[in-house]
Design goal:
Helices cover 13% and strands 43% of the residues. By secondary structure, it is mostly beta strands. Strands 1-3-8-5-6 form a 5-stranded antiparallel beta sheet, with no helix packed on it. Strand 9 and strand 10 form a beta hairpin.
Length: 169
């Protein structure tokens, strides 16, 4: 009986340790990402004029940084924006269409990601505003980072917007 208990306890401890290890931030230098292009070719749906942005070197102590991506429905049909979410809890994003704002939304599993269901007409422009908090990961978050903001929509493939930064203390 003691031997079975010891084996079960060891499995639980190793499982918890593995989960903690897997959740730790990765501080290896980021591998270069190929130049991002809009997820949907211009003229066929939602696209971004600049789908990738580099904040350069930013300091944790300086606080959050913000970037606005300009998107357009280049197709001939209305597109319904379903959901907007980020790849990390350190980032929030909101959709701005005219005077309407939706969000901010974060990472699935860390904050609710409700459906937006906002229609963007053909030729209509909108903004995805992102806010990145370089201090969110604490001292372990120093170094190069890459994040993704995803916009699910009725036109097919999600529109992915990328940003990078080199975080310093």
């Amino acid at each position: 009986m003691n031997k079975k208990f010891a084996i079960a306890a060891a499995i639980v401890v190793l499982g918890i340790g593995g989960m903690i290890f897997a959740a730790m931030p990765d501080n290896k230098p980021a591998e270069p990402r190929p130049a991002a292009t809009s997820a949907t070719p211009p003229g066929t749906g939602l696209s971004a004029s600049q789908p990738s942005f580099d904040f350069g070197t930013i300091s944790m102590s300086a606080g959050t940084v913000t970037h606005q991506y300009r998107i357009v429905n280049g197709g001939s049909e209305p597109i319904v924006v379903g959901k907007l979410y980020t790849s990390c809890m350190c980032t929030e994003a909101k959709l701005i269409v005219g005077i309407r704002q939706y969000g901010p939304y974060g990472m699935p599993g860390h904050s609710p990601i409700p459906a937006i269901n906002q229609t963007i007409a053909p030729g209509e422009r909108a903004i995805i505003e992102t806010v990145f908090d370089p201090a969110a990961h604490g001292p372990a978050g120093v170094g190069p980072i890459e994040r993704v903001v995803t916009l699910e929509n009725s036109a097919g493939r999600p529109l992915e917007l990328f940003f990078a930064a080199n975080v310093t203390p």
